[in-house]
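Hi R.,

As promised, here are both runs. First protein below:
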Amino acid sequence: MADPLFPMKTDKKIKRVLVVNPFGIGDVLFTTPLIRAIKAANPQWRIHFICNKRTRPILEHNPYIDEIIVIEKDEYRDLLKSSKVDFVKKFLSLLAKVKTDHFELAIDLSLGSQYGFFLKLLGVKRRIGFDYKKRGRFLTDRIRIDGFRGSHIVEHYLRLLGPLNIKPHGSEIEMRVSEEDKRWASEQLALKGRDEDRTIVGIIPGGGASWGKDAGRKQWNPKNFAEIAKSLKGERGLRILLLGDDGDRQLCDQISSGIPGGVENFCGKTDLGRFAALLGSCKLVVTNDGGPLHVAVSQNVKTISIFGPVDDKVYGPYPPGDEHVVMTASGVDCRPCYEGFRVADCRDYRCLDRIAPSAVLDKAKELLSKAA
């Protein structure tokens, strides 16, 4: 008898599957349990994944994905401005590839109508996804949502297995790191510190790149991160790594310069694979809400994450557990205010400012005292 939660039978005619997730680091990581479940249930299916250039490294060594297709919207926009002819050629080439690959099934996580339209136009017979604001009109199997709320995004994504009669195959997010990146991280840590056996703590004061100009809305005061780093380095003699992308360099330099003896500043010096490898060397990572948090979780590292306007029950570390501590402000009734993929027009940072460095430090010491 079929499970009532999964009433439909898997289509035996399916050979190729296209998964679409054009969003940021966290969102693509949240997709990995879905991918794993699909491949576990149907190992003969070839899974192709559409993502952007920034998130490609998350998927490059994933054993469940057979091919990655990169679509960088900014490149298409720039090409359209410079040469409409070249834009049309590139776009038609992309459509031709998708059509030539003969996908029988698509899982569309874009929350828009554009991908669904072109997938239907290109003859993908079955198109599963979310119907957000009636944008799922070109999908054959749609789950209506008015935004991600009530449960974690991973769990929302796993709901899309229902129409395929597939059950989850574990809930852990994952990012496989190459042996080359692991060797690089090991060599860098050996070069920068003689006491390789000292416990390493990663500090990530930036993040939130997918929010663009509003990234600062989800970032704790850098002085607080400096206080945490200074205390852990001075009181406990730990090795502190400052991490972030190129846009966080000034922030990390500011923190590093204020700590006696400095810290090991890798900010802007890694790609995503090497970033993940360095995180994998840490016993604890202290970070803002955002993609870097989820990369740390994917490397099985203990985390302390700072959540202001965003709902940690939806966007927090997954799966949740004692090794992942989420810090939020108490007595701030207006949080979380990020809803419908928009943050409230608010310049009151109480939800971040009321998270005391001393409370974060206490949690850090507690996690570090536990056996690895």
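And here is the second one, sequence first, then its structure tokens:
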Amino acid sequence: MTLYQNTMIGLRYKRWTMPEAIAYFIKGVARELHLAPAFFLNLYTKTRISAFLRKWLKQDGDVSYFDICGAKFPDMSNDREKISIFCRIFEDTFLIPAYYHDNYHRSLMEILDKVMMEGPYGYTDGLFDITVKKDDIVIDVGAWIGDFSAYAVSKGATAYAFEPVQETFQWLCKTQSLNCSGGRIHPVQKGLGSSECEVNISIIENNSGANSMVITRCSDASERILVTTLDRFVAENRLERVDFIKADIEGAEREMLKGAANVLKTFAPKLAICTYHLPDDPEILEKIIKDANPAYTVVHLRHKLFAAVV
């Protein structure tokens, strides 16, 4: 798509404000012409953050917080790294609830999937329905500060939010404290994998959403974390069912699914799994899912797979 087409799609489908669209277009022109691209990228980022704050940041007396369709988050406007990521991941988790009334129909998802950074976490096509329902038990793997968990709770679900990194886990707990009505968020400071162990996770400077247990990147630090399997967690916590699994864990999705074989076989939860971290993720992840439970139907979008037993 041309820069102009992307800008128009941003206005029409991603519901950008006019300043956001103009800043995006100028950023693209500057990049193509090699005219101070870093400056105009920074300008675009500032414009997006400013529009985001005006739209979603609320004030209640001395307390400020984000409220997006009933999902609440701590005020991170003074943390440039967190607020920049929050603006980016807003599309993946909240574009559809905020602007499309939770309509995840295939026809709309196939359009938005072409222009969203990572794509939505829902998909429907007749009986194939990958959406969070009231009273669902949701497993949020790679919860970050709890964006998807807060969304799930706003729908009346209960979310077990797995985030192993200490600093990010503290933000997750702040999100949990703001979302106590209806369903509940249960923060779990562990990673999920194929075995119970301790591993080092790379801490990525200026992008806490990209911390990874398996992908080697330039990193300033690492942290020792605990890892368990979903099968073990479900058994130890005596969960009687699992209804939905969302996973975005920077290449460790396959190990998580291997450690969830019994959950997939016994409960057949709906799945929304990122498939863009490793080149063979789409094929490998689908095979693991169907080896655990051949009854699954799997649908692939550009960066995610959706699976359900229908």
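A quick note on the second one: The chain has a mean pLDDT of 92. Let me know what you think.

Best,
J.
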